[in-house]
Hints:
Elements: E1 8-10, E2 17-19, E3 23-25, H1 31-40, E4 49-51, H2 52-71, H3 76-87, H4 95-101, H5 105-117, H6 120-140, H7 151-232
Antiparallel strand pairs: 1-2, 3-4
Amino acid sequence: xxxxxxxxxxxxxxxxxxxxxxxxxxxxxxxxxxxxxxxxxxxxxxxxxxxxxxxxxxxxxxxxxxxxxxxxxxxxxxxxxxxxxxxxxxxxxxxxxxxxxxxxxxxxxxxxxxxxxxxxxxxxxxxxxxxxxxxxxxxxxxxxxxxxxxxxxxxxxxxxxxxxxxxxxxxxxxxxxxxxxxxxxxxxxxxxxxxxxxxxxxxxxxxxxxxxxxxxxxxxxxxxxxxxxxxxxxxx
Length: 236
């Protein structure tokens, strides 16, 4: 049985001919990507074919176009996500652990003071201290060191508030920085998950293409068998 030449198709984008296994029919291209191709190539139709190099290029352009419409431009974070997607990198990391390791001594001290100042042990111990101070100077001592109206106690409380307020503000600034970094990290992970899902859709399209190619090969074999049968059929 004579072997028929391998079927070839012309790419509508680069106008080069490829084997049938190296092109994808327009009917199997995602509609959004197909619309983008149609904007630049008006001759694009459902009967056309596109090579995989041009198809991957337009898929990348489509992803960048989607990101650009959402943010106005592809930001640095999104570029990092696209790069990690291309290089198969993992974005998940322990942001809290990294920030804890990068703290200076002053930052650790501010966090500890703010944490203790906003806890029940501090509130209870401070209440006990006030009760003892007032009780000693009102009832228990014949010569109180801070008689009513407790000027020394007011001075101590004012100094404590003056010191505690900036420390709490420093801790809040660090917490705000943590929240911002955590939000950026979550955004990168969510964006990569979305791109991975789109990549899975592209792989499904590829599987459909391969299945279509196998069916086409089977059809070509059937046509060859029919041609052979027609040629060898006895004439009446």
